[in-house]
Structure prediction request, 122 residues.
Amino acid sequence: MTDHVWSYKSTSGHLAGADLTGYKVEAIDGGIGKVDKHSDEVDDAYLVVDTGVWIFGKEVLLPASTVVRVDVDERKIFVDRTKEQIKDAPEFHRDKHLGDPGYRDELSAYYGPGGPFGGRLS
Prediction:
């Protein structure tokens, strides 16, 4: 039902197989960090963003559907969420992401159609 959350939008300009590690990530209202890890797997595509000191070194997981544009020349990824929306997202835990399907469901609910943003900006 919310699996589309884990797929890149066809309009994002993302090229499957591209290494996005180290790209800067820009929210609607400014930079939020750099890509630490990412996945291009079908129905499981995401970015893990290291926010640095912005939110006390927290890592966040952004489903691929939040990506609106990838600028390869500038090495930047633009997402359709504000800094506050990303800060308020469920905290990323590597162990949970890899072994707890409930965690994926929690993220799908937050970023998907039933989430606080109805799958889009508020």
About this structure: The longest strand covers residues 30-39. The two ends are 21 Å apart (CA to CA). The domain at 3-12+19-111 is CATH 2.30.30.240 (SH3 type barrels.). Helices lie at 83-87, 94-99, 101-111.
